[in-house]
Amino acid sequence: MAKYVTKSGKVLNDADIERLADEAELGYEHHELISQPARGRPALAGGSGPSPTIQVRLDVELDGALRREAAKQDISLSEYVRSVLRKHVPTS
Q: pLDDT in tens for each of the 92 residues of the chain?
């Protein structure tokens, strides 16, 4: 039997899944969908919207090098990539 877990880590039991299915079958009002609070991390610049994201393909060697450097500095890969970009890309 499959195990379903929410983003917050709660394991859903059969009753939870049935309740969610019943709720979905009833449908949602448009205002209910757009009035939900934003999810995810706060914006990097402290604004109210989400921070932009980009997706980049890397070769295996560059990926490994980035990950090793981030680990050496004891920071996340995202944090390391942002620091490198800030050094090399003019923002104004």
A: 678 888 888 888 888 888 888 887 777 665 555 555 555 566 776 666 777 888 899 999 999 999 999 999 999 899 999 999 999 999 87
Question: Residue 51: which residues within 8 A CB-CB, separation 6 or more?
Answer: 41, 43, 44, 45
Cα 24 → chain centroid: 24
Write out the two tokens for 19: 């309740």
Among candidate residues 59, 76, 57, the one with its CA nearest the CA of residue 67: 76
This prediction has a pTM of: 0.51
Beta strands in the chain (DSSP E): 4-5, 11-12
**Domain positions in the chain:** 4-41+52-88
